[in-house]
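User: I'm new to structure prediction. If I give you an amino acid sequence, what do you actually give back? Let's try with this one:
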Amino acid sequence: MASGVDNIRAEQRDFAIIADLIPHGASVLDLGCGNGDLLRSLREEKDIYACGVELSQENLLECVRKGVPVIHADLNDGLGDFSDDSFDFVILSRTIQAVARPDRLLREMTKVGKQGVVSFLNIGYAPSRFQLMFRGRMPVTKALPYAWYNTPNIHLATIKDFRFLCSEIGLRIIEEIPFGPKHNLLARLWPNLLAPSCVFIIENK
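Assistant: Good question. You get back a string of structure tokens that encode the predicted 3D arrangement of the chain. For your 205 residues, that looks like this:
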């Protein structure tokens, strides 16, 4: 992992970690690629073969403007347009919580790609727990800035939840990289409590 990752703003750290995990010249499919920043960076720095999948029209236009190949599709409809093992890596960054059936999408992405890279926000993070415990209301934090009634996140989960899901659906976790806003050591020691975010590398067993 790059030594400069700790100094990057929290919302960009998962992108930096993911970028470090992707080898030079790999083929990469980014599900929910947003405005294409990650794929553009990987193309420029690592000469990858890139393709994104995005639903938002605004983000699609941004991807096109940046020269990032992108397909307009809804991840809830599955990945039937892609053949098995057609990519080295399939990325799902900060998107899993917004899809209808995360279990189905994880199965499909680990068929389409030799390995999957997943990052998400950990609802088990201590500040979120404390808000729920002491205020008795759904947490609102910098990482989760939405109220319960207007959030796009329909399947919030903890790091433990994700580990359990992978085990249940026959996926192997190759690497787990929890990280915090400042103290990555504490996040790695007690990830489910002290890591606001985590990046996983997964594959079929």
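You can read the tokens as a compact description of the fold. Here is one thing that stands out. Confidence is low (pLDDT under 50) at residues 1-8.
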